[in-house]
């Protein structure tokens, strides 16, 4: 659940994330995350609007139409799951008769599922973009809890003015020091509806000093 203030904060956080990805009010952003009850589409949409960008609210599916709209509207950025982006690239290559790396897109913001460095490199090569990672989860807020920055591309930066992270031993909950691998916990600092305290994400990672 969200209060209106939560939604406003969410829009600001995603707008900040898009700015970290190199976005600006001059950009057109193609949103291919699902809308509806899934938080990805609406979170991306609110953030792109708050940034001042033009939003292409495509949602998920309709791959042939997605590719056609990218060709027609010439967006600068795309927000989509990495696995679906690979399907979309195949359709773009089909419509273009081969190489899709010359399309208008320059940055992709990918999240909502795990992906590998091999997937990242393939997407970047075939689409001619910089692929960045956005992190979030519906229980905490939605997309935008953390964002990889265009200048560093070395992993997401957590927005700690809204979300306090901890790393613990996944077996007994013992706190771990920065740099040690463990389970990621979050405490929401600004959420009004359904705030969480030390929420166990079941995601295994480590916290490193910020570089962005």
From TrEMBL:
The keyword Nucleotide-binding applies. Residues 38-186 form the AMP-dependent synthetase/ligase domain. It is an enzyme of class 6 (ligase). One of its GO terms (biological process) is phenylacetate catabolic process. One of its GO terms (molecular function) is phenylacetate-CoA ligase activity. Monomer. This is Phenylacetate-coenzyme A ligase.
């Amino acid at each position: 659940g969200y209060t209106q203030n939560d939604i406003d904060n969410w829009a600001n956080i995603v707008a900040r994330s898009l700015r970290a990805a190199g976005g600006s009010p001059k950009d057109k952003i193609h949103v291919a995350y699902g809308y509806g009850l899934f938080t990805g589409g609406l979170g991306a949409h609110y953030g792109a609007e708050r940034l001042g960008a033009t939003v292409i609210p495509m949602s998920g599916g309709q791959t042939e139409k997605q590719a056609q709209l990218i060709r027609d509207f010439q967006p600068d950025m795309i927000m989509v799951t990495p696995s679906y982006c690979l399907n979309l690239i195949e359709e773009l290559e089909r419509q273009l008769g081969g190489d899709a790396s010359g399309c208008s897109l320059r940055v992709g913001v990918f999240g909502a599922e795990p992906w590998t460095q091999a997937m990242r490199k393939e997407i970047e090569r075939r689409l001619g973009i910089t692929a960045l990672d956005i992190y979030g989860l519906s229980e905490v807020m939605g997309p935008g809890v953390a964002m990889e920055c265009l200048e560093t591309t070395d992993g997401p930066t957590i927005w700690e003015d809204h979300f306090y992270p901890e790393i613990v031993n996944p077996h007994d909950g013992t706190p771990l020091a920065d740099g040690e691998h463990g389970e990621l916990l979050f405490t929401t600092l600004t959420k009004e509806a359904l705030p969480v305290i030390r929420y166990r994400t079941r995601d295994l990672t480590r916290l490193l000093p910020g570089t962005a």
